[in-house]
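User: Thanks for the earlier help. One more: Permease. Can you show the sequence and predicted structure together?

Assistant: Of course, both are below.
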Amino acid sequence: MNNSDPSEIPRLRAFNFTIFGTSVLVASYFPLFYAGLGFSKSQIGLLYALGPMISIVANLLWSIASDKFRTIKKIMLILLLGEIIMSAVLSLSTSFSVIVLMITIFYFFFYPVFPLSDTLAINAAKRANKSFITIRIFGSIGYAFFALFIGYLLSFLGSSRTMWVTIGIAGIALLITLFMKDQSAPVAKMDMSGIWRILKQKELLWFFGCVFSLAIAVRMNDAFLTVTLNDLGASEDMIGWSQLASSLSEVPIFLLLSIYGEKIKELPLLIFASLMFATRFLLVSLADSALDIILVQTLHSLSFGVFYVTSIRMLTRLVPDEYRATGMALFTIAWSSASGLLSGTFGGMAFEQFGRERFYMIAVGFALLACIGFASRYIIRGPRPTIAPAPAVQEAARKDLPE
């Protein structure tokens, strides 16, 4: 039965489009803001690492708050308002110690916006009998648009105005949120008892280990790509073009895999994606100009695009619905939180000590390690295990069957 509001999907698409503008700023232009304040590569790496560390706690706390108070919309309003306030404070800060404190609080509000947005989108898509990708893809389009728009805007205003641009985009997202339909609970509650059931599955453990290795390489690139471009003489608008090239390239891959991806098994696709990541980072290490790196960014579609859709598909296959939130939480820790903390902390020191070429060769090594892990599992894997649903879930499923 479809009881969705016809305007709900367009509003969520607009919201996804907008919030990825703040993602562009945090990923690409915050490091330039720090560099403009005179911070070293190690300091920039530390500031980047704070985000993944805070996200582990922030995602859990805000998820609990959302469940306790039976609202996602109101939590989202608080998060966006917090982003705006902390951006205003950061715009007035120049001391490294002060920025460490302020950016920590900023991240506490910033990171939970995305999993809660996914929750809204998944629920709305289910009610409207649509694919989640039809909403999520507008995030990629928004990322592409804002990457270029913000690049040109900051090339005119200067990187010192980065936080004011953040305030503007978060403010637009806040206005859109006011008109969105609220939802009372997440798709699936976090089940702490489910962690042990998940971690007993050898294939899942292997999968998370490979994801973690690949994620270290990816987060190293995320943290220092714009710094690399800046060192090669790229302006803010050229950096925008590099982000546009990567984000737009993933759109057709998302669409193709959502239609035809099921015809190819997951592990061969993950092996391919890991090889593409390794190739991408190798080419960045060899690049002589910012233009070369922009061209390399088009490999984002064959690396991240293939990996993201396939990894979510594999996780969905291996983890039943009752443990979806737990499985996604563990995946997020491996892909974003723990890997970002490690790569940001040690990546900054590696970049400073060894230079760009060796830094990216280290990233190549981690991507190849993940590729070997996926390949070895593909070769030696036995029957595909899945976690058996709890008896209560089995009984509920039986009740849903037609008589």
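User: Great, one quick takeaway?

Assistant: The domain at 1-187 is CATH 1.20.1250.20 (Growth Hormone; Chain: A;).
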